[in-house]
């Protein structure tokens, strides 16, 4: 339906799309949605809203929904879009606007903002965020306080001039260094680094927002219209531990988030009555833990009363009430894999996405049952990296990973403060150089009445 509307509207625009005789800029919108029905529906609503507003303004415009137009290309990393968009729109557009499906677009305000810029120049604009110290998720890249490196908050959208798009497409096509990058950890940071290699840095503009203010042109708009009801016992929370960390880590989770979980188990290599740990007969490994994770999945498949499985490390802090709120947006009868998405060689044919384990991996019961079938996902060894192995398995099963920025593989200080605003946070990982109980009380232990997660897009202005 979106494709039909787009085709009809594009024809109309190029015969009628001017303010009087004045030539006006043309826009291409790309909605980077998750590959699942409810998110696709939100993307279609947003596309229809943009098309309607553009028609009202007489504005040349085309809208792409990523899961429809680039269904298997790792569009979430941005790089696979460059050559395709350059070929399709390099000669017939002025601006490329990249959005998420949970966004409001005030098109007239966006046009006014970009009227101050020349689309024939290199422009990269959005809501700029910055690191305040070196961080592991950016490979401890140097932070220059006098000239901070800005990268976009994708929730608020960002804009490329088509002139810059063409340059980036050429650079990407000719760069074996960038194309051979193994891991995608923070797609927005890595894309901004690539743009900087072309000599262009992000311009921060207050018109790109995560709060709904009148002056904003593009606004992140998390809605609360999920219809599902998730009871406490519906989620089985599985904690991965080992005897080495029982005394150090288990008292922390029992004093913080475990009090909100009524259906949980602490899986270890040793059954310890004092801490209540269970052993699944898998010996501990120094890294990887694939054997233990798959044993947990097989056991969870036999738990008849659960709807969801959440697997976390013993140094992960989570908000169980907020997790329940988020899961109310999904159906456990669907094949759902949810968490913080990373990628390994994501833009290559042999690459894949995966849920990074430290922030928590969440699976629907339907998916758990499928993963537990003998021969479907068999670990090569007990110490194979579990999250990456599951990513390969999910790709083979053609189950897309749903990314949520509420999950975090690292500590709060490893992220720009601006990225921790505007939505309810579910998890953080690592006790290194932090007081975990303080992290939990400050970031995660808040009343559920303040929670909100994207469920549907609102188009009223």
How would you characterize this protein structure?
The structure is a single chain. The protein is an alpha/beta fold. Helix content is 31%, strand content 18%. The strands form six sheets. It has a seven-stranded mixed sheet. A six-stranded mixed sheet has the order 2-1-3-8-5-10. α2 (37-57) links the parallel β1 (27-31) and β2 (61-65). α1 (2-16) packs parallel to α2. The model is unreliable at 4-22 and 448-461 (pLDDT under 50).
Question: How would you summarize this macromolecular structure in one to three sentences?
Answer:
The protein has helices at residues 2-16, 37-57, 66-69, 79-89, 107-114, 162-174, 176-179, 187-197, 246-255, 290-301, 320-327, 365-371, 386-397, 436-444; strands at residues 27-31, 61-65, 95-99, 103-105, 124-126, 128-129, 151-152, 158-161, 183-184, 203-204, 208-209, 218-220, 235-240, 264-268, 277-279, 308-313, 316-318, 337-339, 341-344, 352-355, 361-364, 401-403, 427-429. With 461 residues, it is of the alpha/beta class.
Task: Give keywords.
globular
Counting DSSP H or I runs of 4 or more residues, the number of helices is 14
Q: How many β strands by DSSP?
A: 23
Q: Quote the beta fraction.
A: 15-25%
| Assembly classification | single chain
- The strand line-up of the biggest sheet is 15-14-13-16-21-18-22
What would you call the shape?
Answer: globular
Radius of gyration: 23 Å
> Would you tell me the structural class of the helices and strands?
alpha/beta
What separation lies between the terminal Cα atoms? 24 Å
Task: Return the average pLDDT rounded to an integer.
Answer: 90
| Sheet with most strands | 7 strands, mixed
Question: How much helix, percentage-wise, in residues?
Answer: 25-40%
- Poorly predicted regions: 4-22, 448-461
